Known about the structure:
32% helix
Amino acid sequence: MTAIDRSQGRVARDTADADASMVPETATGNRALQLEEPLIFEQGTPGRIGVDLPPVPAATNRLGGTARKGAIGLPDLAEPQVVRHFVRLSQKNYSIDSGLFPLGSCTMKYNPRLNEKVARMPGFADLHPLQPVSTIQGALGVMAELSDWLKRLTGMAEITLAPAAGAHGELAGLMAIRAAHVARGDARRRVIVPDSAHGTNPASAVLCGYTVESIPGTADGRVDVATLKAALGPDVAAVMLTNPNTCGLFERDVRAIADAVHEVGAYFYGDGANFNAIVGRVKPAELGFDCMHINLHKTFSTPHGGGGPGSGPVVFAESLAHVAPGPRIQTADDGSYTVDAVPGGGAVGRLKAFFGQMGMFTRALAYMKSLGRDGLHTASGDAVLAANYLMVRLSEEMSPAFDGPAMHECLFDDSFLDGTGVSTLDFAKAMIDEGFHPMTMYFPLVVHGAMLIEPTETESKQALDQLVDALLSLARRAKAGEAAMFHAAPRYAPRRRLDETLAARKPILRWTPPVDTRAAAE
């Protein structure tokens, strides 16, 4: 067995795996244009600099005993080293700009560059949150127009743009629900959530002080309405439902559920994560929801991933408009905009500092205005069409988790791999060798070995066909007994398989210089 040592925190490449002869080692560790890149700390040379700075003038030390006594520990590098290092790292990333991103339940769609240009326009990009309201009228106008679009598309009466993400929006909606119950002297403590919900649903409810009861799904992947109705009672504050749900299916009984929830005096919360499947076609208010958060990155094409920034506006029906949190933008008689910082008598109050993520607002509004209502209607239809196209074609070799057409994403289980010796994880790693980021694996948890694919509306038929051809080929190779190939995957990635559990539990977050064993021996 041979390996190339890439020092602390790196993973050695093992060439003893099956099919290793197809990936010959090189003296440098490079694979053609896929360059092996050391840590930036390993490249430093004392005294090497990329910029000339004037001498520091003499000054009285005012740091007392807190002055640094040793070197700061940063590497000394020339400018070409720095540029090449980060360019090489960027080339190891898979992004929506390099290929189709089939993650299910995440809507990793292409972000139009026009939206990015708008967000960088002077007057938006250089705003300061403490500017006087009179100097940010244009920005407030954008936020007011975005609010109007979102209320019209959802049929809701009120909105807050403040939440910083979808989960933050969930919390905001639940806080409004709690405030409404408290206002009428009805302190309810229970929230009902289907077991196929996003994990943030029960987490947000618990964070808001509620206990959570899970409702199982039926054999066709939808909420068991009879069980849900049996769980309802005078202590239920809300029912949280995602529609279309996390299995990529529309909840056909949504109106019956809404009526049952309202009959016991509870509120119906809508998880708007999958609003992109129905936008322009049905308004959540018409389905009976009292409030719903909207992930701007999923439905309206603002950037997703990388830790943010995010945006999760919440819309409220008339039933909850009186406790909707702020800040909210209001239009004065003269057409100017003002900010109502704590509406609703302060029932919920301010959710976060300032007004939310301005860069997300400009991008989302640019997307809406460039498509228009008809374009949004077409986009949701294209997303559903693409998912069902994948469902039909992939069903030649893969096993759909549920019968019938899907909405914006298609879900498969791992039964097509039974007896092959290939696991869902093996299948995902082999997709990397084919040049694709794996789809969402093992989620939703209600499906064994789940593989959830969301193609979105931004991919062409040619791109979808390329993904289908790769997946069908892998499925056939698994059934043909080529398990060893899957166990060795990925073979062509910058790194082979990692112990992801160990990396998460015991990460090496700090680099320390290697010990010179020869000097130590002397």
